Amino acid sequence: xxxxxxxxxxxxxxxxxxxxxxxxxxxxxxxxxxxxxxxxxxxxxxxxxxxxxxxxxxxxxxxxxxxxxxxxxxxxxxxxxxxxxxxxxxxxxxxxxxxxxxxxxxxxxxxxxxxxxxxxxxxxxxxxxxxxxxxxxxxxxxxxxxxxxxxxxxxxxxxxxxxxxxxxxxxxxxxxxxxxxxxxxxxxxxxxxxxxxxxxxxxxxxxxxxxxxxxxxxx
Length: 219
Description:
By secondary structure, the chain is an alpha+beta fold. It has helices at about 5-20, 30-40, 60-65, 65-70, 95-110, 125-130, 140-145, 160-175, 190-200; strands spanning about 20-25, 75-80, 85-90, 145-155, 180-185, 205, 210-215.
């Protein structure tokens, strides 16, 4: 490589380092409100779900908060100029995590969010029903894919490879914990997410009315 070409590469690298403000790091308890915000802003098949729920915290109480609080070492946060814009989180043992939810997390929330009338089929009502449903892992995941995860990125963090890096950080932590497999659920409408997981080695374990359960070995 010529000296001028080397100089160009160095200058380009310096420019990238100065302008790239994204950073992946472990979760900190002060991130919790931001995780709730990201969960809501991506809660409608990756789109903003704010208009779907009367209580802005409800979605996060199920899909973000318990993971960050009960299994913080499995939570990684992506920031942009210090502001969280994405995360990956989950549980190392789905069945055990379900028991902890029943004992430690859901009881006060069930008092705060009582069931709505059975004829109400709004997203709010459906999510409250989920909150009041006993959380149990299914045998296929418990046996071969005991861990599970959720990953969400705001639009400004998408399409730049950060989803893959978040997944790599999560899988590395599972390997350190000697967890052999992980699964996730993906909405039938979210074809981009299904393709993303397939590229990362996830395979379809079974189909559900709402979408697919996908899993992969960790090692």
